[in-house]
């Protein structure tokens, strides 16, 4: 294996609570192993622009509890081009970087593998996304915090929904995956949940909602995943309003949006992120590349980055049955 003296760490894609805890663990584990560390600001964009900062154990003091990412994040179109990647490689070589640790989602890992193939830098990934949609780890960094934020907000909406006997459609994030939606529906006691992993039939949905609202005269919460196939909460609202059977129903929509991405990471995310950050440096020292550090059944495990995006992490359909049983 080529010499390993100096590593670079970056966060990329949508930020996720716990990214800072991961960066802290990467930096401190590297320092403990006599490695120098360079922080890359704004992910692949910063790599292309040479936006680097020297880091040591002290530069990551007091960040374990912070949401967002002190290294900033970005989605980079330029890194999709070979010229962009060439520029990034040149900058990293000039800065004396031997290997990389990237914290992000599948887009981050796709970029990393391409970059490794073209320019040879060993790269380890840590899964940072609220969506929890990555194969190879039971949970991603940020998911637990986002889930708790969603549930906390559903609780608040339930108070006002109940006071007015209203129907609320609450849209949660997750891109093409329903992990946040399904689990916050259970934890928030929602009457119904719509996720991208199931086939949606508008007539069935309307029937179920009408039964809930008209037969029982009470408030109802429907959690709608943003990637759900009918088009999310706003599309569903239009479909309901266009149907005269819904005339007597007091309907409101709440899109939780980026609220789910912010805030202090939960205890679970801090611990997960710390374990993954340590695992990333250990993996580099052991000579691995193009792998993601995950935690499966409580154990730190490496998975090839390629399988992270080519294999699908399945939703637990038993949980879907649970939402129906408990509603
Ligand atoms: O991947 C994380 C995520 O928050 C998704 O849940 C959401 O679809 C997307 O990012 C939003 O991206 P942006 O912050 O670029 O609007």
Write a compact overview of the structure shown:
The protein is built from 11 helices and 11 strands.
Kindly describe this structure.
The chain is an alpha/beta fold and 327 residues long. 43% of the residues lie in helices and 18% in strands. It contains 11 helices and 11 strands. It has helices at 19-32, 43-49, 82-94, 106-119, 143-164, 179-187, 202-216, 232-241, 267-285, 305-310, 317-326, and strands at 6-11, 36-40, 52-55, 99-104, 123-127, 167-172, 192-194, 220-225, 251-255, 291-296, 299-304. It is elongated and about 70 Å long. It starts with 5 loop residues before the first strand and ends with a helix. It binds 6-O-phosphono-beta-D-fructofuranose. 6-O-phosphono-beta-D-fructofuranose is lined by residues 14, 105, 129-131, 173-175, 226, 261.
């Amino acid at each position: 294996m080529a010499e390993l003296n100096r590593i670079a760490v970056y966060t990329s894609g949508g930020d996720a609570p716990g990214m800072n805890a991961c960066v802290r663990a990467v930096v401190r584990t590297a320092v403990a192993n006599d490695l120098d560390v360079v922080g890359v600001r704004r992910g692949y964009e910063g790599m292309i622009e040479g936006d680097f900062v020297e880091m040591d154990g002290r530069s990551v003091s007091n960040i374990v509890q912070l949401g967002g990412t002190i290294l900033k994040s970005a989605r980079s179109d330029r890194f999709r081009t070979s010229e962009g990647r060439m520029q990034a490689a040149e900058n990293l070589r000039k800065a004396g970087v031997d290997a990389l640790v990237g914290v992000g989602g599948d887009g981050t890992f796709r970029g990393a593998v391409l970059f490794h193939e073209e320019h040879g830098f060993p790269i380890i990934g840590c899964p940072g996304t609220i969506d929890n949609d990555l194969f190879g780890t039971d949970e991603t960094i940020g998911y637990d915090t986002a889930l708790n934020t969603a549930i906390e907000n559903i609780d608040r909406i339930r108070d006002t929904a109940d006071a007015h006997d209203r129907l609320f459609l609450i849209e949660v994030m997750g891109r093409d995956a329903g992990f946040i939606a399904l689990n916050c529906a259970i934890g928030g006691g929602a009457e119904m949940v719509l996720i991208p992993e199931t086939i949606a039939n508008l007539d069935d949905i309307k029937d179920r909602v009408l039964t809930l609202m008209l037969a029982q005269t009470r408030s109802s919460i429907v959690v709608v995943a943003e990637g759900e196939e009918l088009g999310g909460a706003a599309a569903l609202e239009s479909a309901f309003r266009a149907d005269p059977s819904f005339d007597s129903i007091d309907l409101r929509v709440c899109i939780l949006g980026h609220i789910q991405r912010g805030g202090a990471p939960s205890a679970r995310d801090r611990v997960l992120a710390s374990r993954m950050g340590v695992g990333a440096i250990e993996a580099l020292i052991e000579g691995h590349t193009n792998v993601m550090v995950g935690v499966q059944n409580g154990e730190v495990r490496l998975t090839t980055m390629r399988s992270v995006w080519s294999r699908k992490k399945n939703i637990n359909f038993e949980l879907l049955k649970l939402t129906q049983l408990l509603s």
